[in-house]
Amino acid sequence: MSRIKVKWNKQEFAVDVDLNEQVSLLKSQLLSLSGVLPEKQKLMLKGKVLQDSQILSQAGIKENITIMMMGTATEFVEPKEEIKFMEDLTPQEKALAYKQSEGVPIPAGLVNLGNTCYMNSTLQCLRRVPELSQALGNYSLTNPNDLTQKLTHELKELFKNIELVGTAFTPFTFVHTLRTTFPLFDETDEEGRHKQQDAEECLTNVLETARTQLNMPNATGWSGNVIEDLFGIEFQTTIKCEESPEEPPQMMVEYSKKLMCIIDNEGQPVDHLPDGIRAGLEGFIEKQSESLGRNAQYKKTQRINRLPGYLVVQFVRFIWKRASSVAGTKDVKAKILRSVTFPKVLDTYEFCSDELKNSLNIGRDMEAQVRERELEESKEKPKEHKSGTAEFGTGLDTGHYQLVGVVTHKGRSADSGHYVGWAYVKDDIWMKYDDDFVTQVTTEDILNLRGGGDWHMAYLLLYRKMQFMPQE
User: Where is the composition biased (Basic and acidic residues) (predicted)?
Assistant: First the structure.
């Protein structure tokens, strides 16, 4: 970061900037300092007006330089009170009405700093994991020059600031640190604008960075690492040679932080999430066979041996396809738009190893007995699970997971489009995080994010473990 000075009327601001960013980003920073809207600002250096699309360094901006700003701060005039019915309100007015009502307050959004919707949507869903926020709250930065420490610290600060501000928060420092730590997210096009990136890649890199830093003891965890406890899945993997039945199968343990939902299963389309997960856990690979002395086809089967506190599921919507053009053939990234339904409560039992199933049976059997007794006593349909979101280790695992977060992608191109985050609040209430514009939606809206057209379609799902709480 570099510090520059900006003179405006009789005031002078000291501003920390990234010289590789655009002038438009500097204008956004100056809005919070001066109250002058970006479109009303005119920035000048040595008599020349700076253009929004210019990169600061290329425009001649450097450490300790002074530039001039012209523009008048916006005055907000109190409008005359006018009676409006709810159906006549704009989405923005509805959001404000929710804030001022006795209902669920509308939380703060994140300002888009140039194709950062992939990051904004991902972070808003991660905020639905209170255990992560708690662990970050206890984190201390010891070496500011260590990028992994710096990014984890900035994640902590970002979560804290979102909770404290009453309006949309602009994540300047976090975006800069993310791009510095992972140059992939700092890629720009021919005009110097930052490219759209992948939400799953952002999630993976942020969690992996936090994993290296949050090695604090967890009383109810199994690994002593917060990220592994919250998101780590352990698989029991079997690899069996299809061409040599007498060759003994290979057994191994593998780890991941997500389940894959295959949408196009070798030409067989998938319509429902469990079918796609099942396809993601079984497949074929080619490798060297010692018994045959050549490459052979093997069937790889995975079963879950340990379930985490939170389950991330990725829809494999972006694939590489061979395309032909005048210049020849090449692989291009394409998007699968197919509709795939997903449930509010996901049952992972069928995807588990026999050992884990035996463990889950205890909670499942007790839960079934309670539901049966409630049905007999009430003579009506039992209510949904009374278990749910207690701290880990206080209840019995059943393999059930409740949907609490969704990241969607809208658009037909894999390298563009728009990401939005959706997070569960309570009952039938969800929040839609469209960057800095946040609105309240319902569960029905969430289940309609299944795809099949040009509307927002689910790309990442976040499920929270449900635990059965025996009644004393």
Answer: 370-388
